[in-house]
Amino acid sequence: MTPVGETTPVAGMIASHTRVVADFPKPGVVFKDLTPLFADGPAMTAVVDALVPVVSGADLLAGIDSRGFLVAAAVAGRLCTGVLAIRKGGKLPPPVYSVEYDLEYGSATLEIPAEGVELRGRNVVVIDDVLATGGTLSAAARLLQRAGAHVTAAAVVIELAALGGRRAVAPLRVLSLSTA
């Protein structure tokens, strides 16, 4: 896993395709928008190529709502592995496992199905676009563990190292393709 301060070969491509939006979703927050990265075929392919060797061996990939879905699904397709969408609260039919958590700018709920997908004993890697304070990633890992999964690692496209998210999710192993 890439330690803080080190970057992967795709880091420059990620940086050049990241739109920085000041004061979104609230004043003082600097939002890292990866929409341009996801819309560029070669850039998205480079991200997937960088993640495939890191997450191979997982029984299931879990993408966090909503940009994590895009990355997890692309990587899962390459590996012929299943993908689970970790949804924002209220988006799945019951029954669900849910967890409430704090964000850097509010609070939220994440959910996964309590029926229909057997998670007990499966090795799962969680994928998201950005690791900031670690609240969302930590909540996702707790949610999967509550359902009986073994969360082996997490992978993100960008890590905002100054916000301390890696410490917040420790001891979970985290791969970040780039740091900002």
UniProtKB/TrEMBL annotation:
<dbReference type="GO" id="GO:0002055">
    <property type="term" value="F:adenine binding"/>
</dbReference>
<feature type="domain" description="Phosphoribosyltransferase">
    <location>
        <begin position="58"/>
        <end position="159"/>
    </location>
</feature>
<keyword id="KW-0963">Cytoplasm</keyword>
<keyword id="KW-0808">Transferase</keyword>
<keyword id="KW-0660">Purine salvage</keyword>
<dbReference type="GO" id="GO:0006166">
    <property type="term" value="P:purine ribonucleoside salvage"/>
</dbReference>
<dbReference type="Pfam" id="PF00156">
    <property type="entry name" value="Pribosyltran"/>
</dbReference>
<keyword id="KW-0328">Glycosyltransferase</keyword>
<dbReference type="InterPro" id="IPR000836">
    <property type="entry name" value="PRTase_dom"/>
</dbReference>
<dbReference type="GO" id="GO:0006168">
    <property type="term" value="P:adenine salvage"/>
</dbReference>
<comment type="function">
    <text>Catalyzes a salvage reaction resulting in the formation of AMP, that is energically less costly than de novo synthesis.</text>
</comment>
<dbReference type="GO" id="GO:0003999">
    <property type="term" value="F:adenine phosphoribosyltransferase activity"/>
</dbReference>
<dbReference type="GO" id="GO:0005737">
    <property type="term" value="C:cytoplasm"/>
</dbReference>
<protein>
    <recommendedName>
        <fullName>Adenine phosphoribosyltransferase</fullName>
        <ecNumber>2.4.2.7</ecNumber>
    </recommendedName>
</protein>
<dbReference type="GO" id="GO:0016208">
    <property type="term" value="F:AMP binding"/>
</dbReference>
<comment type="similarity">
    <text>Belongs to the purine/pyrimidine phosphoribosyltransferase family.</text>
</comment>
<comment type="pathway">
    <text>Purine metabolism; AMP biosynthesis via salvage pathway; AMP from adenine: step 1/1.</text>
</comment>
<dbReference type="InterPro" id="IPR005764">
    <property type="entry name" value="Ade_phspho_trans"/>
</dbReference>
<comment type="subunit">
    <text>Homodimer.</text>
</comment>
<dbReference type="InterPro" id="IPR050054">
    <property type="entry name" value="UPRTase/APRTase"/>
</dbReference>
<dbReference type="InterPro" id="IPR029057">
    <property type="entry name" value="PRTase-like"/>
</dbReference>
<dbReference type="GO" id="GO:0044209">
    <property type="term" value="P:AMP salvage"/>
</dbReference>
